[in-house]
Amino acid sequence: MVLDVSSCRTYFSSRRLRCFNLPGFIIRPPNQLLSLLCPGLRISRLSVLCAQPRPRAMAISSSSWELPLVAVCQITSTPDKQQNFKTCAELVREAARLGACLAFLPEAFDFIARDPAETLRLSEPLGGNLVGEYTQLARECGLWLSLGGFHERGQDWEQTQKIYNCHVLLNNKGSVVATYRKTHLCDVEIPGQGLMHESNSTIPGPSLESPISTPAGKIGLAICYDMRFPELSLALAQAGAEILTYPSAFGSVTGPAHWEVLLRARAIETQCYVVAAAQCGRHHEKRASYGHSMVVDPWGTVMARCSEGPGLCLARIDLNYLRQLRQHLPVFQHRRPDLYGNLGQPAS
């Protein structure tokens, strides 16, 4: 059941937004009421979902305002790279105004092309102009950026004429602190959704990236189709990840069936927060994406999700809660590698 925000206690300010749960209900504050309560707060299709209560023994920290705030950006990329940057920059600046320490952008935040030839033509090296614009944006806003899937011309571009789907993590100084190149390429044909053959233009990445310490916690990097492979998420969790991120461009058929189920499953089995920024809407005449960007906590509860269309959602990361949960439910201590091997153990 969804209640209007007027039926619960809610607090808003120019830098903070918090909802208080009523037992058994999900409370979603409408955008119009945000504008009425905070005339000075500029919010573009902001959607915050206040999750159902956690188990009493693992309640959220009483000093929740001190917990790091993350922003998840949802966009509709097109082949127009500069317009896409303008849209992303507006959301990132809004995230900074709202007090986020880290903003997540979806896979293909740079562009979504009409065909493999256009994808290759629009691609750039990491040292190109577009990543340079995002490094300046990170410095300007003073927050970390997860650039969820960049069409990267690697060092082997001249030989292969193919690219990498590269997840780039920038710190608040604009420095590249991590890069992960998508290891599972989406070569599928789903009835009603059309053909996706990522390997026509893309090379699979050779390795995983060790979790990176950020102001929100240790982040394990992945991209979209990777979420279907729990071995990857287990490997990142066993390497110390506290947050898993799956920037995505999920299709309109697989999205309603699998999106939330997979994200919640990855959160529960790894006891990590899961952050999934998503593409939404119609990119051009050949492609559309499901949207529904969200944040899931280690209990499997959806903490925040985006509404339809471009916008952002916010969530606070409580690592004390994560540690309590792992202590109360120590599944990693109960694994039986003698029976089924050490699933998710990185290859030597």
Question: How would you portray this structure in words?
Answer:
With 348 residues, the chain is α/β, with parallel strands linked by helices. The protein has nine helices and 20 strands. The protein has helices spanning 31-37, 81-97, 116-122, 129-141, 157-160, 230-238, 254-270, 319-328, 337-340; strands spanning 2-3, 10-12, 17-19, 26-27, 69-74, 102-105, 144-152, 164-170, 176-181, 187-190, 194-197, 212-214, 217-221, 243-245, 273-276, 280-284, 287-290, 294-296, 302-305, 311-316. It has a six-stranded mixed β-sheet with strand order 9-8-7-6-5-20. Strands 12-13-14-15-18-19 form a six-stranded mixed β-sheet, with helices on one face. A two-stranded parallel sheet has the order 1-4. Helix 2 runs parallel beside helix 4. It is globular, with a radius of gyration of 20 Å. 44% of the residues are buried. Residues 1-45 have low confidence and may be disordered.
Q: What is the share of helical residues?
A: 25-40%
Which strand order spans the largest sheet, edge to edge or round the barrel? 9-8-7-6-5-20
Secondary-structure class: alpha/beta
End-to-end Cα distance, whole Å, is 49 Å
pLDDT < 50 runs, ≥5 residues: 1-45
Q: What summary fits the major beta sheet? A: 6 strands, mixed
The radius of gyration over CA amounts to 20 Å
Count of separate DSSP helical elements:
9
Strand and helix order? EEEEHEHEHHEHEEEEEEHEHEEEEEEHH
Overall pLDDT confidence: 85
**Would you report the number of β strands?**
20
- Beta-strand content bin: 25-35%
Oligomer: single chain
Shape: globular
